[in-house]
Write a structure and sequence with these properties.
The strands form 2 sheets. This protein has a 6-stranded mixed beta sheet with strand order 6-7-8-3-9-10, sandwiched between helices. It has a 4-stranded antiparallel beta sheet with strand order 2-1-4-5. It is α/β, with parallel strands linked by helices. The protein has a single domain, classed as 3-Layer(aba) Sandwich (Rossmann fold), CATH 3.40.50.300. It is built from 9 helices and 10 strands. It starts with a strand and ends with a helix.
C-alpha cells in the first residue's frame, strides 16, 4: 500500500498576476504513507506547491491528480476533505474551545443543519475526544483555544486533521513560530499521528536537520522549481549549501 501513488503532478504551472514568480513542476508523485519534507528559502515555492496540492490555487497549466481509496478523485469537495492543511499560525477559532476546534475536522462529513445547530453525532464527538487524548489535550478540552500555548494550539490543529480522516496531511512551516524544543515535540507528534493513521505527510520546513529527522524524502525547491528529490539519507551538506546559496542543480 505504501508504494501506491496518492498524488500525481504532471506539467504543473502556477502563475500569479503582476508577479514574476511561477511554480513549475514537470513531474512529482507522492505515495501513500510517505513522509516528505520541502526545503528552500522563503519565496522558493513551498507554500504554493502545498496550496496547489490542496486545491487552494488553480493551476495555470498542468494537473494535480489525487487518488482516493476507489480511484481518482475529481470532485473538489472530496479532494478538500481528503487533504488536511496545518498552518504555521494554527488557524484555530480562538474564542472556541479546544474540543470545538477539533470537531471542525468532521465538518465536511456533516449536513449543514447539524453544523448550524452544533449537533454532532455521538461517534464524531467520541472521535474528537480520542484525537485530543492522542495529542495529550484531554485536560484542555474546554479551554479556549487562544488561552493555551502555541505548542498546544498546534496539537489541536493536528487533532483536527486526525478527525478529518484525510489521506494526506500538509504542514506549512508548522513549527516556525515555536521554540526549538516545543517544535521538536510537535513534529514528533505530527509524524507519529500520520504514521498511526496511515496518512501521507508533507512538511514545509526551513531546518534541514528537522527535515532529515522527520522525513523519508526531501524535495529542494528554488525559484519555483524542484532542484532535487532524494531520500533524506542521501541529501548531503553540499547539496543543502548549494540550495540555499542558489546554485543547486
Amino acid at each position: 500500500m505504501r508504494t501506491e501513488p496518492l498524488v500525481q503532478i504532471r506539467n504543473l504551472e502556477v502563475r500569479f498576476p503582476q508577479t514574476e514568480f511561477s511554480l513549475e513542476v514537470e513531474s512529482l508523485t507522492i505515495r501513500r504513507c510517505e513522509r516528505i519534507a520541502l526545503l528552500g528559502s522563503s519565496g522558493s515555492g513551498k507554500t504554493t506547491l502545498l496550496r496547489a496540492i490542496k486545491g487552494l490555487v488553480m493551476p495555470t497549466a498542468g494537473d494535480v491528480a489525487f487518488m482516493g481509496a476507489t480511484g481518482p478523485i475529481s470532485s473538489t469537495q472530496a479532494r478538500m476533505r481528503s487533504v488536511a492543511l496545518i498552518y504555521q499560525h494554527f488557524n484555530l477559532v480562538g474564542r472556541s474551545t479546544v474540543y470545538e476546534n477539533i470537531l471542525a475536522g468532521c465538518l465536511g462529513r456533516q449536513p449543514g443543519w447539524r453544523i448550524l445547530l452544533g449537533l454532532f453525532p455521538k461517534p464524531e464527538r467520541e472521535a474528537a475526544v480520542r484525537a485530543a487524548e492522542e495529542m495529550g489535550l484531554e485536560s484542555q478540552l474546554l479551554a479556549r483555544a487562544d488561552r493555551i500555548s502555541g505548542g498546544q494550539q498546534q496539537r489541536v490543529a493536528i487533532a483536527r486533521a486526525i478527525l478529518q480522516r484525510a489521506s494526506l496531511v500538509l504542514a506549512d512551516e508548522p513549527v516556525a513560530s515555536l521554540d526549538p524544543e516545543t517544535g521538536a515535540q510537535v513534529l514528533s507528534a505530527l509524524q507519529g499521528a500520520a504514521a498511526y493513521h496511515g496518512q501521507a505527510l508533507i512538511l514545509s520546513l526551513h531546518d534541514p536537520v528537522a527535515a532529515r529527522a522527520y522525513a523519508d524524502r526531501i524535495l529542494g525547491l528554488r525559484a519555483g522549481r524542484i532542484v532535487f528529490d532524494l531520500p533524506a539519507s542521501d541529501v548531503d551538506d553540499s547539496q543543502l549549501a548549494a540550495l540555499y546559496r542558489g546554485d543547486a542543480e
